[in-house]
Amino acid sequence: MAKNSPETPLMQQHNAIKKRYPDAILLFRVGDFYETFGEDAIITSRVLGITLTKRNNGAAFSSELAGFPHHALDTYLHKLVKAGYRVAICDQLEDPKLAKGIVKRGVTEMVTPGIATGDKMLEHNSNNFLAAIHFTNDNAGIALLDISTGELFASEGDLEYIDKLLQSLKPAEVIFQRNYQKHFKETFGNKFYTYTIDAWVFDETYANESLLKHFQTHSLKGFGVEAMPLAIIASGAIFHYLKDTEHPNLHHITSIQRLEKDDYLWMDRFTIRNLELLGSGIENGQSLLRVLDNTSSPMGARLLKRWIVLPLKDIGKINERLDLVTFLIKETDLRLKIIQHIKQAGDVERLVSKIPLKKINPREVLQIARGLQQVDSIRQSALHASNDYLKRLADALNPCQYILDKILREVVETPPVQVAKGGVIRTGVHSELDELRAIASSGKDFLVQLQQKECEQTGISSLKVGFNNVFGYYLEVTNLHKSKVPDTWMRKQTLANCERYITTELKSYEEKIVGAEDKILAIEQELYEKLLLELQDYIAPMQVNGNVLAMLDCLCCFAENALHFNYKKPTLHNGLDFDIKESRHPVIERNLPPGDAYVSNDISLDPVNQQVIILTGPNMSGKSALLRQTALITLMAHMGSFVPASSATIPLTDKIFTRVGASDNLSGGESTFMVEMNETASIVNNLTPRSLILLDEIGRGTSTYDGISIAWSIVEYLHGSPHTPKTLFATHYHELNELENKLPRVKNYHVTNKEVGNKIIFLRKLAPGGSTHSFGIHVARMAGMPPKLIERANEVLQQLESKHVEMEESGTTLAGNVKKLSAPKLQLSIFDMHSETFDEIRTMLGDIDINRLTPVEALMKLNEIKNKIK
Questions:
Q1: Whole-number CA gyration radius for the chain
Q2: Planar angle of CA 113, 117, 118, nearest 5 degrees
Q3: Which among 27, 94, 361, 649 has the fewest CB atoms less than 10 Å away?
Q4: Which runs of consecutive H residues, i.e. helices, occur in 414-503?
């Protein structure tokens, strides 16, 4: 290399590797540090809060530099990934002591938000999915992999279904064809971390080859995905991406699980959001997941989340779960035993997945053995239970006795976290290891014994054992005793008053003691590697164990919830009648102030007599809560959970649709009303006879008469639909109560209230018949509106109500009625003055259509009037 070259060999090597990973932060191992250079260093120092310095290589070249000690990788890596960066870890591929010239380096792993395996990068209670989407014209295939557990799901369908899966399973990263970036954002929004790859990767032949090679099978029929070409292509893209990001060790991905749209109760993304299943839109808000999740393990928590967004639609499987929950409630001792064993088993799924990734430490290996012991205990306890489903689950458990015994036999009871620290393998496993340990730990004792032995045999009382770097251990004899030295000793050094010798025994011992520590670590490492290699053969049965433990955890959680929160077993049936008695909202009742009891309600729906309930009542009276609890109880029943009601007869439901609450999508350029209409259109276009529809305040995003017209026509449409879907319709348009007289299957109900003086008390009880008041002014008073404002609102309300009959008889519009409103009394005298100016003002006001008046126009008119009376 020329002397005036701007780059050192190290930087040349760095830049060559960086070119292969241009969109990743390159952590470049130099000695005991991971260094970053240039733009990478600027980002790293900012994200991690570490010092940014300049590196000057003695030439014209200088570069920003930021680094941290290699042992702090776990501390810093997750911060970079959580900040949304891809990180390429470049390690030294040879021992620097043995390297000739510059040390060979290469990227050993690429970490991205969707391919995270470190504990600090993962949430224990949530899956960390990497999703791949293969787009076609109208449909798409999707694959979702959690590399930290080995779970791989695949499906295909229309874009609404793919959207629902993305919103439900919330992948940390989504990959797709490069030319579909705009399409992805328009369809799914910009809330996902995305990465695009070349279109050629999304090829069916290539995908098939990748999957067959990985699973080492002749076809994909065994996974049930052979008829899902789009899902296969998406799955193949995931394996390609893993290869691209230096993840060759994937033995823990043992199968593909098909997500079939028809297997699960359908809820669109609006419903998942509206019902607050996984999270609440408000800060510190409660969700169904938060209330139901009393699982004992991370595995159970992750599975429960999936059960909530993917409830079953197979009545046989639902009843299996419900019957087992009933059994676990009765068998208290067995349930508590299972819960205790699951707690002690640890996160089996994620521990097992660390084996092929070569990231499992000795303590975690020992935890796997303890987990297998718990599996064995659960199996023994449950195998002879009187519940068939529990017996089947217990039968699927495998304690893997051989590997369990081997781990307990070979690994010490309290191993260190790192193998490199030594002390992992038990005594008695390897004879040479035991001998080396004895030498290393009792070296001084051996030398003392040797010295005593030679003293006795030779009669040299002043004999000493010494050591130097030139020829190692030696025996030192003073000139006085030189004649007593045996012929077998070899002289090595002569000094003024003594001579130094070595013996065969001493040399042999020296060879052992000098390399003992290194040899101990090498043997321990070798034995540990062999153990991990044998553990790989047990990945599949241990993953089954993890899955079974997760299911048992969820079902025990359902049993505990039923006992603690007074939930009852629902009855699911293939008919269409819906009837729940004394139903409660599972989330609201858990967050009531102490001493407050939740007011329960009965709800009945059927396609013959009471298909549509129009629910009216005061604002804040609990109409929305009633709608939501009906949906949540239906959902919980389909999960296999008991429900908050005294009894529940629930028809097998295939779709739950909700349109609850008004919310703007201003960033997407959509008003409240547009969002409302989009969601409602999604409902009316996807109805079935087994659908449950919950509509709350439809039409309130537009003017009153538009709103009433739309709400009215939606009720008529649902009533007239050949599917006769069961519908709850909460509204503040009391005009809709008329529909009960016009449509036979529409029934009015209201939420009761009691007036005390000029105050209102919400009783939150459902009763037949419509409500005639909305009590909005009472709510305004409760919110602390000024008394004058409340007083004026009451005046306006009385005037409007008194003219309501006139309006109906004469066909006057609401705007016409508003025109006839008198102004506040304070201003009446002004309008009674017979002057030309006030006649003009009166005419001007009479011509104003308030419904069409914008705020700016109103201010301008006010200013015009003000100028007239100056």
A1: 38
A2: 100
A3: 94
A4: 431-441, 443-458
Q: Burial, 215: exposed, middle or buried (Cβ in 10 Å; 0-12, 13-18, 19+)?
A: middle
- Interatomic CA distance for residues 35 and 41, integer angstroms: 8
- 84 Cβ contact partners less than 8 Å away, ≥ 6 residues apart: 113, 193
CB contact set of 448 (below 8 Å; sequence gap of 6+): none
d(CA 679, CA 695): 10
CB-CB contact of 356 with 250 (8 Å): yes
Domains in the chain: ranges and CATH: 9-111 (3.40.1170.10), 123-263 (3.30.420.110), 294-400+538-564 (1.10.1420.10), 431-529 (1.10.1420.10), 566-781 (3.40.50.300), 823-870 (no CATH)
Closest CA to 264 of 639, 680, 644: 639
Asked whether residue 666 carries a pLDDT value surpassing 50, the answer given is no
pLDDT of residue 757: 62
Backbone φ, ψ for residue 494 (5° rounding): -115, 125
* CA atoms of 766 and 751, how far apart (whole Å): 5
Q: How far apart are CA 634 and CA 583, in angstroms?
A: 11
Segment 487-512 mean pLDDT: 86
Beta strand 746-756 pairing with 612-616 = parallel
pTM: 0.82
Q: Residue 6 has what DSSP assignment? A: S
Given the structure tokens 């390159």, which residue do they identify?
26
Q: Convert the pLDDT of each residue in 535-554 to its tens digit.
A: 999 999 999 999 999 999 99
Beta bridge partners of 202: none
Encoded amino acid at 692, one letter:
L
3-state secondary structure of 296: coil
